[in-house]
Amino acid sequence: MSRSVSSSRGSESPMEPERAHRACEKCTRTKKKCDKALPACSRCTRLATTCSYDFIYTAPTTAVVEPGYLAGSTPKEAYGQGIFDPAFDVSSSMVMALLSSRNIPWREATERYFETMNPWFSVIHPELFAIRTDNLGSGASSNVDQGPRDPAVALLIVCMQLVSQYDDEAAAASTNVNEGKDMIEMPAYRAAKRVLSVLRGLSAPSIELVQCSILLALFEFGHGDVMRAYVSIGDANTMAMVISLVNADRAVLLLWRDECDSDTSIASTTSFDCSLIHMPLQVPSPAADDLLPTSNLIWHNQNQSPTRSVQRHPASVAPSVPLGPFQRNCQCAMLYTRAYSPKPQGNPNALLEEYVELDIATRALVEAMIMQTSRWGDFYECFATCTCLLLFLYCRQLRAANTISAAGPFSPTADDIAPKAIAGLNFTIRIIADTTTDLNDQLAHRPHLLAPCSPVTPYSAYHCLMVLSHLEHLIPEADTRFHNIFASLHFFAKRWGVAGKFLGY
């Protein structure tokens, strides 16, 4: 194609080189000065790029067009045909727009979730999820980035992004990333919540909807809305029960247990929301012969690296058996269920005996994790959950000992339990102080370590601060430990909004 050029100076100077009548395409689009030289301008020559003067320039537009105008109707009429329309339906493209509108590749979002969250909160089976998504865009005319066609799977991807997202650059540059932010008011979260309500109300319960409800409960719990998380857990438990009743085939039930691990995954979430609001447990504890999740990353001291191991252990397996992070969380959830189950009133001695048994079992679990790995970080979430449980048990032991002492002036049982409970509190606070101090040192140099941080960790720190503030005269170095643990909440606030609420943001 010949260029449409003309001399910009006419014929007044025959010695002057001929120039194009306008700037080249590259200089025009980058808004750079062009000398209009032929056959190529000096800038394109310097950059070794193609210089073209024959192009159609389309100016960018910032106009916002109402969808109603595109359909030939007024915005008011378009609004009336929204969610109240009987023919209204949720499409997968509508759900995936929650990610594409923010330029978030959905495959990167799922990879980040599996790297940071799923090791300790294994709600989604990686292999089965890959089977559902690897075939997307496999056709000749398909688009790899179009996402899944099932709205429930699309919503699950959005929920995976919600629970794993946080601002890496802001976390590295600022100490108050979430200050003034309310993550519960995020448009993406509110839209995901609405989509889940529509899909749950108009379609049959599915594994994906159960997983979505659990992940949204984790998001709500991590950002401080505990009551809403409790309701979400109830929804997930109800759908799981319906699926178990409908799918009577044993093969389907085995697939369901491997896919979502309904008892253990929901119980692990219920354990930390019920520990705060003192509501009845919605999910029963796994039975002793229930199988724990089969695949986990396990740390081996000889190789000094994590390796993937496929195992099947009963829920009553001894703590000394090496297990992965989520399997440890399942064991801790069983202890939580025992501790928070309703107890008969009027027999404080029986309560003390049960609390002592739970104390021994929890400490054995903590010791097993310490012996299994040389790094706190491999079991941060389970350490935090165990310390919350220990604080609860020791405070209840002190209360029971006080009740026994009030009933009689001389009680050998109360005199023996109270010092042990105080020593147990000191032991637990020392664990929390050591882990948070180590975590603070690491986060100061590597903020990306916040990505796998569990929302239970700031709750553990907060409960520890409450104990220190009330029993500072009984805990050695209470003031120093208080300030070290309090400083950790600033780091946690960059990942989970509930830590910022504890700090008064």
Automatic annotation (TrEMBL):
UniProt keyword annotation of Cytoplasm present: no
Region ranges (Disordered): 1-22
Protein name per Swiss-Prot or TrEMBL: Zn(2)-C6 fungal-type domain-containing protein
GO MF entries: DNA binding; DNA-binding transcription factor activity, RNA polymerase II-specific; zinc ion binding
GO biological process: DNA-templated transcription
Location(s) in or outside the cell: Nucleus
Native organism: Fusarium oxysporum f. sp. lycopersici (strain 4287 / CBS 123668 / FGSC 9935 / NRRL 34936)
Record keywords, A-Z: Metal-binding, Nucleus, Transcription, Transcription regulation
Source taxonomy: Eukaryota, Fungi, Dikarya, Ascomycota, Pezizomycotina
Domain Zn(2)-C6 fungal-type, residue spans: 23-53
GO CC terms in record: nucleus
Family matches, as InterPro entries: TF_fung, XnlR_reg_dom, Zn2-C6_fun-type_DNA-bd_sf, Zn2Cys6_DnaBD
Residue spans of biased composition, Low complexity class: 1-14
